[in-house]
Amino acid sequence: MEKRIKDLRDHYIVCGYGRMGRIICRELKGRGVRYVVIEKNPLKLQGREETLIMEGDATQDEVLREAGIERAKGLISVLPTDAENLFVVLSARGLNLKLLIVARAEEEGSEQKLIRAGAGRVISPYHIGGLRIAHTVLKPAVVACTLDECGIGRELGSIIVAIRRASGEMKFNPTFRSTIQSGDILIALGEISKLKIQEEMAAAGP
After folding, report:
1. What span, in angstroms and rounded, lies between the C-alpha atoms of 144 and 47?
2. pTM summary value
3. Shortest CA distance to 72 belongs to which of 106, 47, 97, 104?
4. Is the pLDDT of residue 141 over 60?
5. In this predicted model, what pLDDT tens digit does every residue of 51-87 receive, in sequence order?
6. Where are the beta strands (DSSP E) in the chain?
7. The CATH classification of domain 145-204, taken from the options 3.30.70.1450, 3.40.50.2000, 2.40.50.140, 1.10.132.30
8. Of the candidates 29, 82, 79, 83, which has an alpha carbon nearest to the alpha carbon of residue 58?
9. What is the distance of C-alpha 115 from the center of its chain?
10. Quick one: DSSP state of residue 113?
């Protein structure tokens, strides 16, 4: 395992192998993305030989180094508490200034702390889940439409490079046939003035 980890380049480090960590790893594996998991609870490591997992405390610098953080492309911290995720973000940012860091936040007010610590993105699963449920109740008739049908991007000359689903799933290089749904976030390239207009169009909804 040590040799396999040392051979990794431009990989992702997933800190925590709980329910969310397993979902993340399944998505990464399904897309052929290289990753290594850090998990300190040995009970969660049983029967996971097919996944590259190392036992250790992700809040420790030495453990992050063993996972190849200096060579990594990104780090995802989904440990059980905000305090643990905060320590991981602080350590990771200190070890790799160019690293993409995504962290989970449980409590209100933790998001800004994680961002100040060095996280590039902070995700609140309960917040996203709550919004999804609310949208389902408030807009039950809303159906998915394609980028071509809604005209976003085409009319303003911008380029939609990715769609982030409410679940956190990323769809890169979407085509004009790609569907967008309530709660999706569009990542676009273009002139700032036109992107602002596009943002207003998206906020208005279908």
Report:
1. 39
2. 0.65
3. 97
4. no
5. 788 999 999 999 999 999 999 999 999 999 999 999 9
6. 12-15, 35-39, 53-55, 74-77, 100-104, 121-123, 145-146, 159-164, 170-172, 179-180, 185-189
7. 3.30.70.1450
8. 79
9. 14
10. H
